[in-house]
Design a protein that fits this description.
By secondary structure, this protein is mostly helical. The protein has four helices and no strands. 71% of the residues lie in helices and 0% in strands.
């Protein structure tokens, strides 16, 4: 429904598009009304699908940023600096620690509880 759209300008544009049929239909010849209604319905559904896709993109972007922020907090808020001369084993250990912290940062639980809002 239009009320489920999160951006006010999306709701306004959809309401205008929906009301558009009331402007067009009275002046449409009787034998063309079915086609006009069909075209109007297609345009309304296309626009709604466009907004749903945009909404999904915004949600996905927000989830990614939230996950990265939680991971950074788990890392202690700073990147570990690579010191020249560090052995290959130490670099691998640091990398596995970063990966482990990403897995254990709790993003899956936080995102699951944030998404309903």
């Amino acid at each position: 429904t239009v009320a489920s759209l999160h951006m006010e300008n999306w709701r306004t544009e959809m309401s205008t598009k929906i009301d558009q049929i009331n402007q067009v239909l009275p002046t449409t010849p009787t034998d063309e009304k079915s086609d006009e209604i069909r075209q109007w319905m297609d345009s309304v559904l296309d626009k709604m699908n466009h907004y749903k896709a945009e909404h999904y993109r915004y949600v996905k972007e927000g989830i990614t940023l939230l996950e990265l922020a939680l991971w950074k907090a788990k890392l202690g808020g700073k990147e570990e600096k690579s010191v020249e001369g560090t052995t290959k084993k130490a670099k691998i250990d640091a990398e596995s620690a970063r990966i482990e912290k990403r897995i254990t940062c709790g993003a899956d639980m936080v995102i699951k509880n944030v998404l309903p809002f």
